[in-house]
Specification:
alpha+beta, Heat Shock Protein 90, Ribosomal Protein S5, domain 2, Ribosomal Protein S8, Chain: A, domain 1, 19 helices, 22 strands
Length: 616
């Protein structure tokens, strides 16, 4: 029997390695920028076409390469960072694996032009699918320029798995943002299809954060700094009131390398204990400097996970430092000595004879026994979203369940008899709906009483309505009298572009207006939130949260996000008419008893259960 084990050809081996190193255009962008950083560049330009599918070009002013180094850089396992095995535990640079350029060259057409400071001429190399087409001397600027064209041109199956340009661009921005935060002193630009996406001059860390995330972040940051014999920690955390429902703005860097670490993330979250709104996550951008011999960064192919020798101590240091910084921000009072007349303001008091005794204002005509309906009309909330639609004349037919009873019973364990009871008596008891603690709607039924969660009910109504609008592109827009411009950070702007067709289908009238800015000419007709910036930000945050936690498709995620933002909240007082309409619309839904979080919207108490409470 002949031998069957053989060495793979270099071209095949490089394509296999490329599967680990280059999953999408963003992977190539990351590797190339990190190589430029390691080359000592203080100016790096990234130019993209077709979200990196057609072109990824990177130009830096780093040290450049000799003719031999330029050729060797495309060989597998070739690197300038490692000489012996022990060097793996003393790494402070990024591009050390020696597979990045070889992997990229295996699946693209690459042109490299480079020159060192001390050389008169540079070198240019053309490579296609790992094969060197030409290498020769040329005139070149100091540094390196590399152009990666037609990514995955020779692996069409891989190329077919790439997403749309907005999705791929969002991944590129993620990687670019991490490198930019790790290297605030380096001048970085990013252009896509002829438009400048980022222009980041070398600056302090706080300025870099503001340039990347937006001017509003200037007031959101709390500095953190702690120097110990184990680690040196510095960076910023966000003020608790600016926490978001997604974890997108959380960055850990160890020796300037972006890492993901759920254990250290928990250390930060524990420092925010009892300071954050429910189900929200704080912003943090934290940097750990540690002896490389105390960590192992070779535990994950992408080098985004690290093992530590003394992780418990690092946990305690991070938690303590963040908690102390938050304590200074929240508790310690400050005096602004630069403000004029600050002391005078404290000591300027009114004479005793000018002090006015407090008075009590009351309504002498108030009568607690007035008709309850009259009082409810006085406190009528015109701004409820469900108030937009008139009560249908045949409202009682909305309780007819017909073929949907079986589906509802299976999905929500809701007894068919309860629906029938409610259907039979609905017209009689509709004037007996009662709001309980401004959270629940209480309705009598034959067997007892039904309790409806008003917020969950309205979310269900809006969710099914928005799904229908997304499917039929039937969302109605309410035009704004004064169109508002909304500026987003680059990540959210890229996400908005990705979702724009679906957002317009919901009834938003939006057009692009300059860098990271859109103009909102109209919003969905059943929304009363006139703060366009807040509305868009909440919609995008909800979408990101749904994608992260629930892995929903695009339409479902958008419908959920908008429904949760637009629904009435617990604590909102409702009139009898509003409660009737809400109940009518709920029982017209396909799944009236299932909330968006999977819990029940409706619960019932039978007379037997109620009487048992009093049967002693």
């Amino acid at each position: 029997m002949p031998d069957i084990i053989q060495l793979l050809p270099d071209a095949v081996a490089n394509q296999i390695a490329a599967g680990e190193v280059v999953q999408r255009p963003a992977s190539a962008v990351k590797e190339l920028i990190e190589n430029a950083v390691d080359a000592g560049a203080d100016k790096i330009q990234v130019i993209l076409k077709d979200a990196g599918k057609a072109l990824i070009q990177l130009i830096d002013n780093g040290c450049g390469m000799s003719l031999t180094d330029a050729r060797m850089s495309f060989e597998r396992h070739a690197t300038s960072k490692i000489k012996k095995a022990d060097d793996l535990f003393a790494i402070r640079t990024m591009g050390f694996r020696g597979e990045a350029l070889a992997s990229i060259a295996a699946i693209a057409q690459v042109e490299l032009k480079t020159r060192r400071h001390e050389d008169e001429l540079g070198t240019i190399i053309y490579i296609e699918g790992s094969e060197v087409i030409k290498q020769e001397a040329c005139s070149a600027d100091t540094g390196t320029s590399i152009a990666v064209k037609n990514l995955f041109y020779n692996t069409p199956a891989r190329r077919n798995f790439l997403k749309s340009n907005p999705v791929e661009m969002r991944h590129i921005i993620d990687e670019f943002q991490r490198v930019a935060l790790a290297n605030p002193k380096i001048f970085l630009t990013l252009h896509h299809d002829g438009q400048e996406v980022f222009h980041l001059p070398g600056s302090s860390l706080k300025q870099r954060i503001v340039h990347l995330l937006g001017n509003s972040y200037n007031q959101r940051l709390v500095p953190v700094e702690e120097d110990t014999t184990i680690i040196n920690l510095h960076g910023f955390v966000g003020k608790p009131e600016f926490a978001r429902k997604t974890r997108g703005e959380q960055f850990f860097f160890v020796n300037n390398r972006f890492i993901r670490d759920s254990y250290l993330n928990h250390a930060v979250l524990s420092a925010f204990q009892e300071l954050l709104p429910e189900e929200t996550f704080p912003l943090y951008i934290l940097y750990i400097d540690i002896d490389p011999s105390k960590i192992d960064i070779n535990v994950h192919p992408t080098k985004t996970e690290i093992k530590y020798q003394d992780e418990k101590s690092i946990y305690a240091i991070i938690r303590s430092a963040v908690k102390r910084s938050l304590g200074k921000y929240n508790i310690t009072p400050t005096l602004d000595f630069d403000q004029e007349n600050s002391i005078e303001h404290l000591v300027t008091l009114k004479p005793l004879d000018e002090i006015v005794a407090p008075t009590i204002a009351f309504n002498p005509d108030f009568n607690p026994f007035n008709d309850e309906k009259e009082q409810s009309r006085a406190s009528h909330h015109q701004d409820n979203a469900y108030r937009q639609s008139p009560i249908p004349s045949n409202w009682d037919t909305l309780y007819e369940i017909s073929k949907r009873e079986e589906t509802i019973q299976k999905t929500a364990n809701f007894d068919e008899s309860q629906f029938m009871e409610h259907t039979e008596v609905s017209k009689v008891i509709s004037n007996q709906l009662v709001q309980l603690h401004n959270r629940f709607i209480l309705s009598p039924i034959k067997s007892g009483v039904m309790l409806i969660n008003q917020q969950a009910a309205h979310e269900r109504i809006l969710y099914e309505r928005y799904l229908q609008q997304l499917q039929n592109h039937s969302g109605v827009s309410q035009q704004s009298l004064f169109p508002q411009s909304v500026t987003l950070n680059s990540i959210d702007f890229a996400l908005l572009n990705e979702l724009l067709p679906e957002i317009k289908a919901l009834g938003f009238d939006i057009r692009e207006f300059g860098k990271n800015t859109v103009v909102v000419d109209g919003i969905p007709a059943d929304l009363n939130n006139t703060n366009e910036h807040e509305l868009l930000e909440q919609l995008l945050e909800g979408y990101k949260n749904n994608q992260l936690e629930l892995k929903l498709d695009k339409r479902d995620s958008l419908a959920r996000s908008l429904a949760k933002n637009a629904a009435i909240k617990a604590g909102t007082k409702m009139t009898s008419e509003e409660m009737e309409l809400l109940v009518d619309q709920l029982f017209a839904c396909q799944m009236p008893n299932l909330a968006l979080n999977g819990k029940l919207i409706i619960t019932t108490f039978t007379m037997t259960e109620l009487l048992a409470r009093f049967d002693k």
